[in-house]
Every structure is written in structure tokens, then in C-alpha cells.
Amino acid sequence: MKVLWVSAHPDPRSLNASLQADGLRALDAYGHEARVSDLRAMKWNPVVDAADYAHDPADRLHVGRASQRALHDGTLSPDIRAEQQKIAWADTLIVQFPLWWYGMPAQLKGWFDRVFVNGFAFGLTDPATGRPHRYGDGPLAGKRAMVVVTAGARAATLGPRGVNGDLNDLLFPLQHGTLWYTGMTVVPPLLIPGADRITPDTYATAADRLRARLRTLPTTPPLAFRHQNSGDYDDELLLRPHLAAPRHHGPAAHYTTPPAPIAP
């Protein structure tokens, strides 16, 4: 594998940083190549701005059009181009972060906002049908992705009956709405719970779980998201009635097979 590991945590002494270091050593031991985007160390700017696209600030900024034009003209900001080159090189993306307020840290969200621009991560259309290539058929099809997330909560509270909600539902905007949208195959996430109560023993267990997931990452069965253009959705991109059973609504409706419960 050629792995791009993107991480976001403000402290280089954090649990996330330690897990990343162990994970990178494991990838090397397994014979894989890896590149890193440590957004803290890079001092990554998460804010979309007209300067990203060499856009005249006197004119109204339409981000989709401006980013597509800048990609085509080669005028994207150099830091954005550098990240896109890493993604183009990689066949696998690992996205690692602490779960804050049910989502990604702002710096990581801003990485996606600035890097996944029109024409690079989305915006392709089937010339025969006019349908956009997305949700399994996007420009990044052929790449594999995995989310590694730490949380202060106990694992059970991020399960189907937990007060925090099911982790796959919490990650649906990232796993389905970003990674799968752009064409990436997404494997089940790795949750490291109890992040604020880690002991040497529980850390050793967490690192072992990470190494095991990295070892099997090339062959792990992916989350069974529905393809947009497979016939499951009608011309209005609504799930066909016979597939929308009453018990399947919200995120659950967009899997052909429900994901397995998150392992503790």
C-alpha cells in the first residue's frame, strides 16, 4: 500500500500522536510506504479564502467555480496542491482524529474543505447519462480509506443503544458524505475509547488493535454503502420505495448490508 496518514491533534504528546507513530512503524514493518500530513505540525490553515484560488477579492467568491478554475489553471494555493499530490500518490487514506463535539477538529474539516475541490474530488459527470460520478464512482475511486478515532466515551456508549449514538452514524458525514462521495472504498472505522483514562496496559491493547487493523487493511471488507448509479436511487436521487423499509431510514437506508457493531 501507499498510505497517506492525515491527523489532527494540537498536542504532539497526545494519545493520537503516539498511536500514529506506532501505526507508521507498523506500516513500515509490513512493507508499505507512508506519507504524513500532521496538520498541527504543518500549521495547516483550515479557512477557505479567495487567495486559495488567486481570486480577485473584489468579486463575489463562488467557491465551486473558483476552485475548479484554479485547479484547471494551476493557480491553486501551493499548500492545497501539495496535499492533492499526496492524495494522488496514495492508494489508501487514513484519517485520524479525536472525536470533538461529535465531529472532526476544525483543522481537519478545513483540510477537506480546502483540498477536496471541484474537479479534483468531485465534479465529474457521465457524458452518456449526465449523472454526476459520486457515491462510489467519484474521481477518487480505486482508493481505500479508514477512519481512526479516539473518544473520551466508553465504547458501549458509541454503539447502537448508547447515549452518544452509534459511531457509524456519527461518522456518516465523513465516511459516506465525503470519502464514499468522492469514490473511495471505506472500511469500518477503528475506535479507541476511554481516551482520557488510558493506562500503559490499555494503550498496549489499543496499539495492538491498530496494528492488527493495518495488517489487514488491504483486504478488510468495506462498509456496504449503496452506489448512487447502481439503480438503487431513482432519477431524483431518492432511494427506491422497495428499498426503504420502515425500519430503515436515515443513514441505515444507504447501506446494502448494515455495518457490524463497533468493536470496543
From TrEMBL:
Key words, A-Z: Oxidoreductase
Enzyme Commission designation: 1.-.-.-, 1.6.99.-
Database matches in Gene3D superfamilies: 3.40.50.360
Top-level taxon in the UniProt lineage: Bacteria
GO MF annotation: an example: oxidoreductase activity
Annotated Flavodoxin-like fold domain residues: 1-213
InterPro entries given in the database record: Flavodoxin_fold (IPR003680), Flavoprotein-like_sf (IPR029039), NAD(P)H_dehydrogenase_qn (IPR051545)
Stated family: Belongs to the NAD(P)H dehydrogenase (quinone) family.
PANTHER family in alphabetical order: NAD P H OXIDOREDUCTASE-RELATED, NAD(P)H DEHYDROGENASE [QUINONE] 1 ISOFORM 1
Protein name as annotated: NAD(P)H-dependent oxidoreductase
Organism: Streptomyces ramulosus
